[in-house]
Design a protein that fits this description.
Helix 1 runs antiparallel to helix 2. The chain folds into 2 domains: 102 residues, PH-domain like; 51 residues. The two termini are 42 Å apart. It is α+β, with helices and mostly antiparallel strands. It is elongated, with a radius of gyration of 24 Å. The chain contains 3 helices and 8 strands. 13% of the residues are buried. The strands form 2 sheets. The protein has a 5-stranded antiparallel beta sheet, with helices on one face. 39% of the residues lie in helices and 27% in strands. About 3% of the residues have low confidence.
Length: 176
């Protein structure tokens, strides 16, 4: 497995058509507008509760309600920042490329020969596929960690089909 960690140059463009291409991103269930609505509701409820404590004479509690809202906001922003990570898998007739980009923007890239790669699965009887690996020359590369069990199954079927097509080699269409 080749590892190319250079960030100085952009990835080389593919010179042959892609058989399979996928970008896998972490799932976030709360949209940006949902986040705004949630923060407005939380802030309003905390402010109203804080005012009640302020009127009752427990004025230090008011500040803690504001601190709670600030901490929830910070946690959500950190969660959205981590959602910038992604994995890209591209299969051509002669190469399988896996790029993993962290939420900091650091890229790791592996280029494998699809003839020597097999897809390995850790599967649980009840829950389905838990982990997927690309195995080549005795080394395992975990992929699709962001996906759920059903999504991993669909991804694994599509990737296995693309690897089988790459092993068959390029085909030519004869026009008459």
């Amino acid at each position: 497995m080749n590892t190319d960690n250079s960030l100085d140059r952009p990835p080389e463009p593919a010179h042959e058509p892609a058989i399979f291409s996928a970008i896998i991103t972490p799932h976030r269930s709360l949209s940006p507008s949902g986040f705004l609505i949630f923060m407005l509701v939380l802030g309003s409820a905390s402010f109203a509760s804080g005012i009640m404590f302020l009127i009752a004479g427990a004025w230090p509690v008011f500040g803690f309600f504001g601190l709670d809202v600030l901490l929830v906001y910070w946690a959500f922003r950190a969660n959205y920042r981590s959602a910038r990570a992604y994995e890209q898998v591209i299969v051509t007739a002669s190469e399988l490329t896996v790029r993993k980009v962290s939420h900091h923007g650091r890229m790791r890239q592996w280029r494998l020969n699809p003839v020597w790669v097999r897809l390995d699965r850790d599967q649980h009887e009840e829950f389905g596929i838990e982990r997927l690996f690309l195995v080549s020359h005795g080394r395992k590369l975990p992929i699709a960690g962001f996906l759920g069990a059903k999504e991993k199954e669909s991804f694994a079927l599509a990737l296995a089909g693309a690897l089988a097509q790459a092993r068959r080699g390029p085909t030519r269409t004869v026009f008459k």
